[in-house]
Write a structure and sequence with these properties.
By secondary structure, the chain is an all-alpha fold. The chain has helices at about 5-30, 45-50, 55-65, 75-80, 85-105. Helix 1 packs antiparallel against helix 3 (about 55-65) and helix 1 packs across helix 5 (about 85-105).
Length: about 110
């Protein structure tokens, strides 16, 4: 039976890194500023923090760049569904894991 413990640990670590990156980038675009560690991952980013559509685009562009996820993976519908930091992290994780798997498959690593 294959050992999946390492895979799960790696996935958890990657998800935490994605959430940390998203939290840090969101904190940078919020006005007034909110410390990254105080951002509630389940709060509506518009209602709770006043995130504007322009700042959402800036935030998503930066977090995609930082995490290596191509913003082109996301449709307009995907972006509209990203209402909370947890939504953003989940969307990033889906594409980050797919990108990482494709890279490993392509390189044979």
């Amino acid at each position: 039976m294959p050992d999946t413990t390492h895979t799960t640990d790696t996935t958890d670590t990657t998800d935490t890194a994605l959430e940390d990156a998203a939290r840090d980038q969101l904190a940078l675009v919020l006005v007034p500023e909110v410390p990254a560690e105080e951002i509630d991952p389940d709060a509506d980013m518009v209602a709770a923090y006043g995130l504007t559509s322009l700042n959402k685009v800036l935030f998503l562009t930066e977090v995609c760049e930082e995490t290596g996820v191509d913003l082109a993976h996301f449709t307009e519908h995907d972006l509209a569904d990203m209402k909370t930091l947890r939504d953003v992290t989940a969307a990033l994780a889906r594409h980050h894991h797919a990108t990482a798997t494709a890279t490993v498959t392509a390189t044979g690593a």
